[in-house]
């Protein structure tokens, strides 16, 4: 059934973002993600927050809309996606390109070497942090049993909720195996997270943002992941403890939260 | 530290000490850090599993996967990153992530998925180093593994075709090569005058792409236009691997 829906979306909702660059950013641009309170998972929440932070940094207004079937509406199957004018673009990378085509960019002031570094650090976050989040959500039995299965299947009736959750888990485990994370233990994954945070902390140093005075998409991505890790209640606190070891990363998250999201940003609780 | 360290890995050809990226990364790191490794090249008579290659065997244990092997060597005080600053160490991790995400899919595709390359070069080379009947089964399995990895990491679910990904992964790989070339500039190595972990990884990924003769060569052609990267590979081959070229 879901495959059919996906087929229909794929045929009737094209998503190539290149041609209508001339139109200005509309007031009614929307960002779609899963339901905040009951459904969304750690990794998807991080991705959504990263895009929201990026758009805030570019000063582009965006309205966040929560839909239970956001994952299926997305052209690439991944959340979040934005609906701007008659274009639909998903994931941070393509969204950054799309926004650039409309004339807004955070990384224009960087030279070639800095751009290479920025791309490398963004891959580091995707390679280690995102993969670790996926591992924790879908391959750690405690988390899967207590949190993930219930949340992922929550909008659907029995037995669909179980079937979809198991299907997604199988997909994620297959991917983990393909990239060599299949045999890792939780401790090794946490070790990798620590290494990644250490690298980010060392790169950030005492600067306000990764490329000194102005934030870039790298800052948005790092903020999205770290803030979500820090504010999400998991079965244990080991993941957020790893991040808390680095005080400059904590200060970085607070700075972006206060500057771009105002005080009193929600902290997500998963129960 | 005095215990003999033996590395089992795939052998060389076309002027390289090994044609397998992971094996080459470990060999290069060992040369840079001065670790005394005894290299055992896998051939028909080797009995172990070939899935984990390269494998480091010490007195007490066996370690596979380049990242773990390099960690082990560092703990044994063979550290090529001793002179690096904290930021350079962080940059190393980031650039390795870039290599794995952007360059590796296209390298895997060039070696294992592109049919002309696979059937005329890769498969015969690997099959000749495996005993019958493994030589009939294992190359196919390695090829399938490479394809799965590409589709699972770069493909989109589930109605998805390899041809669409091919264009994207080669575009990403060319961009990655350009970024590396920009970053290297005119320096001899990525962090000054002494080679480090990042140089080992870049060499491991680039050298097979640079030297192995393939029928379908689009990525190779692009690499050859980036003369500083070619010079980088040649320098390392001449300085660190000249003696063992005779074994390749």
From TrEMBL, chain B:
Domain Mitochondrial outer membrane transport complex Sam37/metaxin N-terminal: 23-142
InterPro entries for this protein: Glutathione-S-Trfase_C_sf, Glutathione_S-Trfase, Metaxin1/3, Metaxin_GST, Mito_Protein_Transport_Metaxin, Sam37/metaxin_N
Keyword annotations from UniProtKB, A to Z: Membrane, Mitochondrion, Mitochondrion outer membrane, Protein transport, Transport
Domain of life: Eukaryota
GO biological process, one term: protein transport
One cellular-component annotation, GO: SAM complex
Subcellular localization, as worded in the UniProt entry: Mitochondrion outer membrane
UniProt-listed Pfam families: GST_C_6 (PF17171), Tom37 (PF10568)
Residues of the Metaxin glutathione S-transferase domain: 173-236
Family from the record: Belongs to the metaxin family.
The protein's name in its UniProt record: Metaxin
Gene source species: Capra hircus (Goat)
